Amino acid sequence: MPLIKRINTNNLIAFWLLGLCNNFAYVIMLSAAKDILEKESKNGSSIYNETCPGNEKDIKYSTISTGSVLLADILPTLFIKLLGPFFLMHMAYDVRHIFVVVCQMLSYIIVSISTTIEIGLLGVIFASLGSGLGEITYLSLASHFSNDVISAYSSGTGGAGIIGALVYAIMTDPYVLNISPNKTLLFMTIVPLIFLFCYSKILKCPESVKQVGLFNNVDNYVYESIQNEIDEEIDNENTIAINETSDNIVSPLSYEEKKSIIISMLYYMLPLVIVYYAEYFINQGLLELISFTCKKGFNLTLSAQYRWYQVLYQVGVFVSRSSNNICTIESKFLPLLAIIQVVNLIIFYYDAKNHFISHIIIVMALVLFEGTIGGKAYVSTFSQIHKNTSMEKREFSLTFVAISDSIGIVLAGFSAIPVHNYICSLK
Q1: Which pLDDT does position 42 carry in this prediction?
Q2: Structural domains in the chain?
Q3: Is 210 exposed, middle or buried (CB count within 10 Å of its CB: 0-12, 13-18, 19+)?
Q4: Residue 264 CB: number of other CB atoms within 10 A?
Q5: Using CA atoms, how far apart are residues 365 and 344, in angstroms rounded to an integer?
Q6: Which helix (H) or strand (E) holds 282?
Q7: What is the rounded distance in angstroms from the CA atom of residue 344 to the CA atom of residue 56?
């Protein structure tokens, strides 16, 4: 039994780290969005908003929306997620993991050495490819484990947000470490190495996980671990689902079965699409237009204000994604989260146009709340799917629904650019 408990703990830690490392590059690229768009052609340094504005007339806005970075950071992800459920599920998990690690390593290196916006965006694209492949890989991998790994993975993705945004803000803030964005990004190359170690040395996979043997991480005790854990649960449906894993075989789904699953998953997908559309419209389309003077903005530079908005958003995401075992949202309440996030969008849009909010602390509180709603929608959606879907349908369901957030983010990116231009034309 101690061995089984140790394997359980190792796998929870592994999935937390997988979530952390997989989302880290994505978060860093969004936190660095302003810096990427402000590259000088000669040395790639940031030249924008490094002083605190004394009055509102000193506040200058970028001519290019950070929505362009968002699109570079999400379109490849959406492409991968659309292909994944139909063409990538037969690829071995360890091979997929290697691709994810390589893409993330390239992303940090390319952006750190780039001297133009175009090269910087190329690095963002590599981060997006790695993140997209990683998400569908690790969510579908979770179908071979107990439901707790969903919470661990979701918490890890939230941890990526808060740790990534906070580390980037602290390292680049002129009042703290004052390290250049380029050197900061080069420092981040340690993350893919941790990523590689996590999958190969910490994670213990059951034999049902398809691999080619790149890593010696298969352990038969995983099945016994899952079974003993589920025996203590009173949820009969979960017990039956796990018992089905004892055969180690899940029959391939037919086209009609996949079509039926897709239709049934729309109930989970639509609220998640709306939540992510609203929050990324806010984060990458409106927050860059909500700036404050020294007196009303804690003496933060305009770039620093944007970075700390990102930190607070990620704090909210992390807290809510890590609290699934404490506060569970049932399926019937998922649409309510979408409605709340749309209300947040309306408030931020009105303030971006009219600047009716008097101090940055109010905006920071709203950003924190917005992140909390987004994180709760994410973890609740996948947790409910894992709980309510039979074993033979679970892997495909989790993989397919993973495109929901990307669809919402892509729509937000395309919306953010014209709205940015419209609001700037009013100022």
Answers
A1: 41
A2: 2-426 (1.20.1250.20)
A3: middle
A4: 14
A5: 12
A6: none
A7: 24
Q: State both tokens at 152.
A: 């661990």
52 touches 294 (CB < 8 A): yes
Between 116 and 189, where is the model more confident? 189
Q: What is the CA radius of gyration of the chain?
A: 22
What is the pTM for the complete model shown? 0.73
Q: Contact 377/271 with Cβ under 8 angstroms?
A: yes
Which residue has tokens 């709203």? 366
Measured CA to CA, the distance from residue 358 to residue 320 in angstroms comes to: 28
The CA–CA distances, whole Å, from 93 to 40, 133, 199, 212, 288 equal 40, 11, 10, 8, 38
Asked if residues 29 and 69 have their Cβ atoms less than 8 Å apart, the reply is: yes
CA distance 14 to 152: 8
33: which 2 tokens? 């969005």
Give tens-digit pLDDT for 144-163: 888 889 889 988 988 898 89
Q: What is the pLDDT of residue 237?
A: 46
Q: Name the nearest CA neighbour of 355 among 306, 312, 293, 291.
A: 291
- Return d(Cα 371, Cα 213) in angstroms, integer: 39
Task: Look at residue 296 and give its three-state secondary structure.
Answer: coil
pLDDT tens, residue by residue, 281-293: 999 889 988 988 8
Q: Distances from the Cα of 422 to the Cαs of 15, 99, 200, 289, 415, in angstroms?
A: 42, 40, 49, 11, 11
Output 174 or 271, whichever has higher pLDDT.
271
State how far the Cα of 126 lies from the Cα of 158, in Å rounded to an integer.
21
Cβ proximity of 103 and 126 under 8 Å = yes
Question: Tokens 């037919």 belong to which residue?
Answer: 254
Mean per-residue pLDDT over the chain, rounded: 84
DSSP 58-81: G----SS-THHHHHHHHHHHHHHH
Return the structure tokens found at 425: 């034309």
Burial 236-261 (b: 16+ CB within 10 A, else e): eebeebbeebeeeebeebeeeebeeb
pLDDT digits (tens, 9 = 90+) for 341-354: 999 999 999 999 99
